[in-house]
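Narrative summary of target 7.
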Amino acid sequence: MKDKAGHRQRLRERFLKSGLQGFHDYEVVELLLTLGTPRKDCKQTAKDALKKFGSLNAVLDASPAELQEINGIGPNNVFGLKLTQTVARRYLSQRIIGKEVITSVEEVMDYLQHNLKNKKQEIFSVIYLNGRNEIIEMEDLFEGTLTSSVVYPREVIKKVIEKHAAALIFVHNHPSGNPKPSDEDIAITNKLKTAAATIDVKVHDHIIIAGNDYYSFADHNLI
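Modeled conformation, tokenized:
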């Protein structure tokens, strides 16, 4: 028991001294699991979770039901994992609100990658910008394969008016890992761009997140 307690304490001291530098992914998961079961050895459980889901991000993105399929993970552990993920997303989001999007590209991409790259379904999001191209808000609007029956331009325009936005950046993910836009992606983008133009709102870009890769419509002259 003392050795297990000492191991957990060493993990915590390493983190407090150097952050996550030098930590293996399973050690990060193990550290998070100990928040829910502070007196239990969580190393093997952490390794089992990584083996099942494949990566740290995938563990954090897994549903509570999926997580509890792992022997040793209970509701308290799930609470710690999901709270950590949610806090990280809010932190990354709030860090870029009010910043000019061009000078904050790396921070914006950090947020988008963290939020979207391991999603199992396509999520369509909008970044709302003011007249100085500063980020007002980022919002997930639609879920499911991008088709005209899923993404409604009138709903997007309604949101734009509510947010008093002057410009937009569209974002969605490709769970397949292929960042190349489909014909439907291009058609939806053109339809949304036309709808936005009717209220004098500019669309700056449409970004597709695919794992660690991404595709920018603006970079490929499709906007």
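The chain has a mean pLDDT of 85.
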